[in-house]
């Protein structure tokens, strides 16, 4: 009886145990710190009542987190523009009640298609753009308040994008090096997991697969990139790690 209770408790604990992709804890902490600073600054500058809307723009660092310099600049500008434009459209159509539903349908289709087609990795999801439009439509009944929210969103998103570039001043190639190094470590742990049982091998394999995929995406998003170039198979340590991972699965 005691053994069964211990097994049940272990199963429940394992089910709810926090899991993460290796190498992402530090990156996500930096993004969370940038978002917090952005909200505090906007509340101090614009007043707490209107500054709290900056939370939407402050989430920009969570889009394509851990990416190289060029990807951060590109995504910061694109996401900032998308959030601001979505809210501006909501404010613009707010006085015309008949246009709210048709405009919402079009925005959901366009934003969802662009996000899931062209985003290299996932951000907070296209729902953030739709939330921005909904807030603009709701508060846009008072046009003064609505356009103030658009301005706060633009400032917050650009500020958080700029702050996200600061960690790269001393180490411009740091994201690529960290991603490849983490992939190599994860593959090495997977190769050594043969004696740890089926569960241990499965966990090490999944962690290695995630780390190698993250390294590949990081290298693919780095500058320079030729216009229209096809995605090629990664070389170097990340490529060797993926090859080892495939060989390990065949065993």
Question: Summarize this, please?
Answer:
This protein is mainly alpha-helical and 251 residues long.
Provide an overview of this structure.
With 251 residues, the chain is mainly α. It is 73% helix and 0% strand. α5 (69-93) runs parallel beside α7, α7 packs antiparallel against α8 (143-165) and α10 (197-220) runs antiparallel to α11 (236-250). Residues 227-234 have low confidence and may be disordered.
Tell me the strand percentage band. Answer: under 5%
The helix/strand order is HHHHHHHHHHH
Distance between the termini: 38 Å
Report low-confidence residues grouped into runs of 5 or more. Answer: 227-234
Alpha-beta classification: mainly alpha
Helix content: over 70%
* Annotation, overall tally of beta strands: 0
Label the overall shape: globular
Question: What characterizes the major β-sheet?
Answer: none
User: If you compute it from the alpha carbons, what radius of gyration comes out, rounded to the nearest whole angstrom?
Assistant: 22 Å
What order do the helices and strands come in, and which of them pair?
Layout (H helix, E strand, L loop, with lengths): L1 H15 L8 H22 L1 H4 L3 H4 L10 H25 L6 H19 L8 H13 L3 H23 L8 H18 L5 H24 L15 H15 L1
Structural features:
single chain, 251 residues, mainly alpha, 2 domains, 11 helices, 73% helix, 0% strand
